[in-house]
Amino acid sequence: MSVGSLGAGSGMDLESLVKKMVSAQRDAKVKLYQDKLNGYEAELSALGKVGSAIDSFKSSVDTLNDETLFTGRDAKIAQAEGEEVISISTDNTASNGSYAIDVNQLAKGSRVMSAPGLFSSADDVITQKDADLTFQAGDNEFTINVKAGTTLSELRNQINTSEDNFGVSANLVDDGNGNLFFTATSAIEGSGNSLKIINSSPITNEAETLNEDSLEEVVADDIEEPEEIAEAEVDELDLPGDDVDFANDGPIPEDEVDEVEEDPVEASAEEITDRSVDNDLAEDNVAADGVNTGLTLDSISTEGVFAGLYTPLGDEARDAVITVDGIQIRNSSNTFDEAVAGLSIEALDVTDKTTRVDISYDQKTVKEAIEEFISSYNELLDLFQASTDKGAVLNGNSMIRNLQSSLSTQLMSSHGKTTGTFTSIFDLGVKMDNTGRLSLNSTKFNSAMDRGYSDIAPLIAGEDGLAKSLENLLDNYTGSGGMTNTLKDSVRDSIDNTEETLEAYEDRMARYEESLREKFTGLDSRLANMNAQGGYLNSVLAKM
C-alpha cells in the first residue's frame, strides 16, 4: 500500500480512514484465498507421501514377481564360525543335493631370493651398464630398463613402482648377521607360474673367457662319468604341484620339471663357473667401506650360468587342489568356478576332515521377500488410514478408497493353478487381522515350503499369480501417467489458478486504494481551502 500524508491540510486522520476502508474490503477475501492455498499445499504434500508409499509397495511386489526368486539356491556349509575352510556361492543352475569337499592344497605365488654373502649393502651397485630386466610368471610379463650405476635399493623401488608390474614385490632383508638378501615375490598363482627374472644384457663376467674346452678339461679332472643313470621312480597318480599324495599310494616324488634333464658334465661346469664368479666378487669387488661395486645384473637374475637368485624349496608357485565327492580337482587359483556346475567354490584353508555342503532351494530369501511385502503393505495401509481419518486432509479421497478396496480384493482372491497345493497367499501362513493388517506365521510358512515349494512360484509370480495381479493394479496409480501423479497435477493446477486469482484481486485492491486516496486528497484540499476562507472571514469579522 502507498503511504501518504492525507489529512495534513484538513487536520483530519484521512490516512487511517483509507487503510481501514481498504482492509475492510481486502483482508477477509485474501484470507479465504490463503486458506485455500494452504489446503491445496497440504493436500499435495499428503498425496506425495501416499505416492511414495505406493511406489515402495510396488517395489516389494516387483521383487515377488521375479520367478528367479523361487529358483535360487542356498549353500549350507557344515563349518564353525571363525573356522571357515571354504566359501560357496550358487546360481540357479546348481543341482540340489549334498557334497563332500576337502581342501587338499591352497594355491600360492612364488618367491625368489639371493644366496647368503652375494650382497653386502643396499648401496651395492648391481650394473655398470644400461640393461633390461624382464620379469615373467606364466603368461604375465613386464620389463624395466635398469640404468648404469643403479643400486640395490634403487632397483627395489624401480620394480615396486613400475606401472606394468603384474604383482611382483621386491624387498631387502637383513638377517642381522651381515647377510643382506634380495627377495622378490609374485602374486601369480598356479603350477608352472613361478617367477623368472631374466637379464637381457650380454654376459660381461670374466668367467665368460672360459671356453668349452677348458671347462670340459676341468670337469674331466673332478667328475667321473657315471656308469648308468637310474630312471626316476614315477608315481602315475601324482599331479605336478602336489605336496601330498591324494591317492594314498605312498610318498610322492618331487614334481617333475618340464625341462630337459641337464647333462652332469654341463651342470658341474656351471657349478665351477658360479664358484669362480662368487670368489671373484667376494675378493675383488668389495670396496673399503664394504659396498660391493663389481656386481652385474646377473646377480638379480634367476636364469643363466651366473644367476644370483634362486627359488627356495617350497616357494614355487602351485595350484590349489580340492576333492569333491572323491574326485580330485586342480585349479591355478583358490576359486573354483567350473568344478561343479552352478557352484563357485573358494578354498580358504586346508582341511583336516571332510566338509559337508548341502545345496537346496533358497527358502530364506523367499521368506525375506514375503516379509518385506507384508511390511510394505502394512505401512501403506497405515498411511491410508491416517490420511483419510476424520478431519484429515485426504478425508473422502476417492482414489485412496478405491485402491484400498482393490488391494484387499486381490489378496483375498485365488491365484495360480486351481489344482495346485496352494490357492492363495494365506495358504503360506499369511494372516489378516480385523483391521486389514497382514502378518506371517513362520511355522506354517516353513511347513508350506517343505510341502510344496514348486507350487509357490506359480501362486505368486506366475502369469495369474498374486504379484502379477497386484503389479497390473498398481501400474494404474504409479508412473508419470498414473492416477497419483494425475491427482497431484490437478492440485498443482488449482494452486496456480488460486494464486493467479489472488494476485488479480490484490491488483484490484491496489487500484481501489489508489482511487480512495485520490478522492480523499481532493477532499483534504477543499477542506483546507474552506478552513483558509473561514479563517479569513473570522479575521475580517473580528475587525468590524
Automatic annotation (TrEMBL):
<comment type="similarity">
    <text>Belongs to the FliD family.</text>
</comment>
<comment type="subunit">
    <text>Homopentamer.</text>
</comment>
<keyword id="KW-0282">Flagellum</keyword>
<dbReference type="GO" id="GO:0071973">
    <property type="term" value="P:bacterial-type flagellum-dependent cell motility"/>
</dbReference>
<dbReference type="InterPro" id="IPR003481">
    <property type="entry name" value="FliD_N"/>
</dbReference>
<dbReference type="Pfam" id="PF07196">
    <property type="entry name" value="Flagellin_IN"/>
</dbReference>
<dbReference type="GO" id="GO:0009421">
    <property type="term" value="C:bacterial-type flagellum filament cap"/>
</dbReference>
<comment type="function">
    <text>Required for morphogenesis and for the elongation of the flagellar filament by facilitating polymerization of the flagellin monomers at the tip of growing filament. Forms a capping structure, which prevents flagellin subunits (transported through the central channel of the flagellum) from leaking out without polymerization at the distal end.</text>
</comment>
<keyword id="KW-0975">Bacterial flagellum</keyword>
<dbReference type="Pfam" id="PF02465">
    <property type="entry name" value="FliD_N"/>
</dbReference>
<feature type="domain" description="Flagellar hook-associated protein 2 N-terminal">
    <location>
        <begin position="10"/>
        <end position="109"/>
    </location>
</feature>
<keyword id="KW-0969">Cilium</keyword>
<keyword id="KW-0964">Secreted</keyword>
<dbReference type="GO" id="GO:0007155">
    <property type="term" value="P:cell adhesion"/>
</dbReference>
<dbReference type="InterPro" id="IPR010810">
    <property type="entry name" value="Flagellin_hook_IN_motif"/>
</dbReference>
<keyword id="KW-0175">Coiled coil</keyword>
<dbReference type="Pfam" id="PF07195">
    <property type="entry name" value="FliD_C"/>
</dbReference>
<keyword id="KW-0966">Cell projection</keyword>
<dbReference type="InterPro" id="IPR010809">
    <property type="entry name" value="FliD_C"/>
</dbReference>
<dbReference type="InterPro" id="IPR040026">
    <property type="entry name" value="FliD"/>
</dbReference>
<dbReference type="GO" id="GO:0005576">
    <property type="term" value="C:extracellular region"/>
</dbReference>
<dbReference type="GO" id="GO:0009424">
    <property type="term" value="C:bacterial-type flagellum hook"/>
</dbReference>
<feature type="coiled-coil region">
    <location>
        <begin position="488"/>
        <end position="515"/>
    </location>
</feature>
<feature type="domain" description="Flagellar hook-associated protein 2 C-terminal">
    <location>
        <begin position="317"/>
        <end position="532"/>
    </location>
</feature>
<protein>
    <recommendedName>
        <fullName>Flagellar hook-associated protein 2</fullName>
    </recommendedName>
</protein>
